[in-house]
From TrEMBL, chain A:
This is ABC transporter ATP-binding protein. Keywords: ATP-binding, Nucleotide-binding, Transport. The keyword Chloroplast does not apply. Residues 7-230 form the ABC transporter domain. It comes from Ancylobacter radicis.
UniProtKB/TrEMBL annotation, chain B:
This is Energy-coupling factor transporter transmembrane protein EcfT. Keywords: Membrane, Transmembrane, Transmembrane helix. CDD domains: EcfT. Belongs to the CbiQ family. InterPro entries: ABC/ECF_trnsptr_transmembrane. It is a multi-pass membrane protein. The chain crosses the membrane at residues 12-31, 37-55, 62-80, 86-105, 134-153. It comes from Ancylobacter radicis.
Length: 232, 203
């Protein structure tokens, strides 16, 4: 990783479909493990989508590990990896090896290098036997792991997880959490599971497009839980 | 004919994609003038022997023909009505042999190898500004999403039946289209997150 883990948002405002989803948000994210919580529609997904250029702000600046999102948007996909909620939406090739090779090619390898690199990349996770498997034959957890491997081979500095556990059973989720905990990258995690932030350095609670609370996970979770129970 | 790739390697996997496609083209050329039913019958037997040599997973793929019976029936009925049932049978066996052979190629050829083989043919697309790589990506994604679309249809059918006790049938078409569009939106986003569709012809 060439740069220190630093993501900066400067007075970022973003509207989608005529609605303000992020309202003058300024943040400095230097910690290695950062969580995001908030009700549906609070702006979590929009915020992380700014980081790899999937969305561009109406005003304000976004800087990710030295890259200005407005100036070099093409650099962002290689800097910020993205894991979505549903792996079926993310996997675009019929076999595992092709899926990994596509990422390697997107990261600038030649087609030949990309194909030859797929099996070693799988081997790093003890999954070299997967190379020829059709992706539709993988279980949900295996698909999610494939998505993570396909993102990791692009050697991003940051990995964003957008509700990755929603369709996973508990043992599978725990295995993935252990894997994520060991990653050297800066991690931004959106999750609705209240126990998903063990060992995290910082937790942001977004509410109606603003940061409502920002601090150590335990404190923020306690406040968020109290808020949710007051609504119930 | 789109079918599922066989993950277990067979002898046919080892043959380069270009050869298989060339053989397929050659066989279809050679058999098109043949009008002898015994010869076509022998060909079908040979094709079945080919499937048997690829193992039980390949033989299970023969089930895909079940969906095509109505088409075969209409074809036969048409020729019978025309008074040439034998010729109808010849046409039918020819069709059957070609479908099964094409399917044998897709079963044993990885998508990228297939695209490498046909890319030279796609190259003229570059003259009109279409990247052969983008076309290859499109085809790969199509193959990838077919099982997913079947699953989507099944899920819609299930929720329809859960509330009505009847099969959804054509009523599912509109929701299916909407869900498919949503799916493609998500996938486009995921593709963009990894840097988008390749434009250049990088080697």
């Amino acid at each position: 990783m060439p740069n220190a883990p630093l993501i900066r948002l400067d007075h970022v405002t973003l509207s989608r479909g005529g609605r303000v989803v992020l309202d003058d948000v300024s943040l400095e994210l230097t910690e290695r493990r950062i969580g995001l919580i908030g009700t549906n529609g609070s702006g979590k997904s929009s915020l992380v989508r700014l980081l790899n250029g999937l969305l561009t702000p109406d005003s304000g600046r976004v800087i990710v590990h030295g890259i200005d999102a407005a100036e070099a948007p093409a650099e962002l996909p290689r800097t910020v990896g993205f894991i979505f909620q549903n792996p079926d939406h993310q996997i675009i090739f019929p076999t595992v090896a092709e899926e990994i090779a596509f990422s390697l090619e997107q990261a600038g390898r030649s087609r030949r290098e990309a194909r030859e690199g797929a099996v070693p990349a799988l081997a790093r996770f003890g999954r070299e036997g997967w190379a020829e498997r059709p992706v539709h034959a993988l279980s949900e957890g295996e698909k999610q792991l494939l998505c993570i491997i396909a993102v990791l081979v692009m050697e991003p500095a940051v990995i964003v997880f957008d509700e990755p556990f929603s369709s996973l059973d508990l043992p599978t989720r725990r295995r993935l959490e252990t894997l994520i905990a060991a990653l050297p990258q800066q991690v931004l995690m959106i999750a609705h599971e209240m126990d998903a932030f063990a060992g995290y350095d910082r937790l942001l609670w977004l509410h109606e497009g603003r940061v409502r609370l920002d601090g150590p996970p335990q404190e923020v979770l306690a406040a968020y839980r109290a808020f949710a129970e007051a609504l119930a | 004919m789109i079918s599922l790739y066989l993950p277990e390697r067979t002898w046919l996997h080892a043959i380069p994609a270009g050869w298989k496609l060339a053989a397929l083209a050659l066989i279809s050329l050679v058999i098109s003038p043949i009008e002898s039913l015994p010869v076509m019958g022998a060909l079908i037997l040979a094709v079945l022997a080919l499937y048997a040599s690829l193992g039980s997973a390949a033989l299970r793929q023969l089930a895909l023909l079940r969906a095509m019976w109505p088409l075969f029936a209409i074809l036969l009925a048409f020729h019978w009505w025309n008074g040439d049932l034998i010729f109808g049978l010849v046409v039918l066996t020819r069709l059957l042999a070609m479908i099964l052979l094409a399917n044998a190629v897709t079963m044993t050829t990885r998508m990228d190898a297939m695209m490498d083989a046909v890319e030279p043919i796609l190259r003229p697309l570059g003259w009109v500004g279409l990247s052969p790589r983008a076309v290859a990506l499109m085809v790969a994604m199509m193959i990838r999403f077919i099982p997913l679309l079947f699953a989507l249809w099944e899920a819609l059918n299930e929720s329809y039946r859960a509330r009505t006790g009847k099969r959804g049938g054509w009523r599912l078409l509109a929701p299916f289209c909407i869900q498919t569009l949503r799916l493609s939106h998500h996938t486009a986003e995921a593709l963009a997150a990894r840097g988008g569709a390749p434009r250049g012809d990088r080697r």
